[in-house]
């Protein structure tokens, strides 16, 4: 069981003291969306002269691709959007050991116990809701409440999304296979509407298609930054509910990559002050180092920490088991 030490710590000077490397190129497999991460990749290229060739795709898709490619992979860096995918690739022995001074001063939840990946940001699972068609008295206290008749046809989810799949893995860890499958099937039978990703669920609430959605905390502030009257808000289930899972995006150097030094430099850059400010203010995610200004429109970090379930993120590595369960439930 992990200790709930999630507050960002000071980043030691050695963490940023990356050795100078000759300008070259590296290949990045990114499970993070292009619109969010390409600007910070561009900044890395500008500052280092290292060209980054990016292959974008789903986090799970790229994890599977790395396993299929093995020693033949062109990837130097793998950037996944959840701890489960990072753990799956690590378990397949496809990640290089990182220098200790990259991760040694980060709290435990922000790094792998094996030392081969580190978090680039944190995020929380929430439920989004209509501010015009729901009241506080209507809101679910547990994610298991959403199978009730009163929520029939009113809830949205994205079973193909990597963060959702990592949440399902967490439910399997905490509540077991049978109860998780029962919940998935009950949600399906209760008319839960399937969306291709998290982003489109929020406009669906505003348009009246659904009243609730299961998403991550950072999508809504991206909308309300431009529309303060957007009729959607978000909240948490009761304290400790698995629906409040706190997860992380992570980055690693691949074991068989040909540009190890450049790849390590990229990892260091992603946990630098500049990159962390970007993730916090533009992505509305939680930073992994101290002293980073957060977006005032973002959900309260302290509240997210208070209500998060106590679970070891290193246990979320059975992606294949989760995908198999989702197939059994007829969701992917």
Q: Could you characterize the architecture of this molecule?
A:
With 332 residues, this protein is an alpha/beta fold. It folds into two domains: 13-122 and 247-296, Periplasmic binding protein-like II (D-Maltodextrin-Binding Protein, domain 2, 3-Layer(aba) Sandwich), CATH 3.40.190.10; 123-245 and 320-328, 3-Layer(aba) Sandwich (D-Maltodextrin-Binding Protein, domain 2). The chain has 13 helices and nine strands. It has helices spanning 13-16, 34-48, 59-69, 83-91, 100-103, 162-175, 177-189, 201-206, 219-224, 260-270, 273-281, 301-307, 319-328; strands at residues 25-30, 51-56, 77-80, 118-130, 155-157, 193-194, 212-216, 232-235, 246-253. Strands 1, 2, 3, 4, 5, 6, 7, 8 and 9 form a nine-stranded mixed β-sheet that branches. The radius of gyration is 19 Å and the shape is globular. The protein starts with 12 loop residues before the first helix and ends with a helix. Residues 1-21 have low confidence and may be disordered. InterPro entries: Ferric-bd (IPR026045), SBP (IPR006059). This is Iron ABC transporter substrate-binding protein.
Helix and strand layout, with pairings?
Layout: H1 13-16, E1 25-30, H2 34-48, E2 51-56, H3 59-69, E3 77-80, H4 83-91, H5 100-103, E4 118-130, E5 155-157, H6 162-175, H7 177-189, E6 193-194, H8 201-206, E7 212-216, H9 219-224, E8 232-235, E9 246-253, H10 260-270, H11 273-281, H12 301-307, H13 319-328
Parallel strand pairs: 1-2, 1-3, 5-6, 5-7
Antiparallel strand pairs: 3-9, 4-7, 4-8, 4-9
Helix pairs in contact: 3-4, 6-7, 6-13
Organism: Marinospirillum alkalitolerans
Protein name: Iron ABC transporter substrate-binding protein
Keywords: Signal
């Amino acid at each position: 069981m992990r200790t709930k030490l999630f507050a960002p710590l000071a980043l030691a000077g050695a963490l940023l003291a990356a050795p100078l490397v000759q300008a070259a190129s590296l290949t990045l497999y990114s499970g993070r969306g292009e619109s969010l991460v390409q600007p910070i990749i561009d900044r890395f290229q500008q500052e280092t002269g290292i060209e980054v060739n990016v292959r974008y795709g789903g986090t799970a898709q790229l994890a599977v691709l790395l396993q299929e490619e093995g020693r033949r992979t062109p990837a130097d860096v793998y950037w996944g959007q959840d701890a489960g995918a990072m753990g799956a690739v690590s378990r397949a022995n496809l990640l290089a050991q990182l220098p200790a001074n990259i991760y040694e001063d980060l709290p435990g939840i922000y790094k792998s116990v094996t030392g081969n990946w580190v978090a680039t940001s944190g995020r929380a699972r929430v439920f989004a809701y209509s501010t015009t068609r729901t009241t506080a008295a209507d809101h679910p206290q547990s994610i298991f409440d959403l199978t009730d008749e009163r929520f029939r046809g009113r809830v949205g989810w994205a079973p193909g999304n990597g963060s959702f799949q990592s949440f399902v893995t967490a439910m399997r860890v905490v509540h077991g296979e049978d109860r998780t499958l029962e919940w998935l099937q009950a949600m399906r039978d209760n008319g839960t509407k399937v969306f291709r990703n998290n982003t489109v669920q929020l406009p669906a609430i505003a348009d009246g298609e659904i009243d609730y959605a299961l998403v991550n905390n950072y999508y809504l502030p991206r909308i309300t930054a431009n529309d303060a009257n957007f009729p959607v808000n978000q909240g948490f289930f009761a304290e400790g509910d698995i629906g409040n899972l706190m997860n992380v995006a992570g980055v690693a150097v691949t074991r068989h990559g040909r540009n190890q030094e450049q790849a390590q430099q990229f990892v260091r850059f992603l946990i630098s002050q500049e990159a962390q400010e970007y993730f916090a203010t533009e992505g509305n995610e939680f930073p992994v180092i101290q002293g980073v200004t957060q977006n005032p429109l973002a959900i309260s970090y302290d509240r997210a920490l208070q209500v998060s379930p106590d679970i070891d993120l290193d246990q979320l590595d059975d992606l294949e088991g989760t995908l198999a369960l989702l197939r059994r439930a007829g969701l992917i």
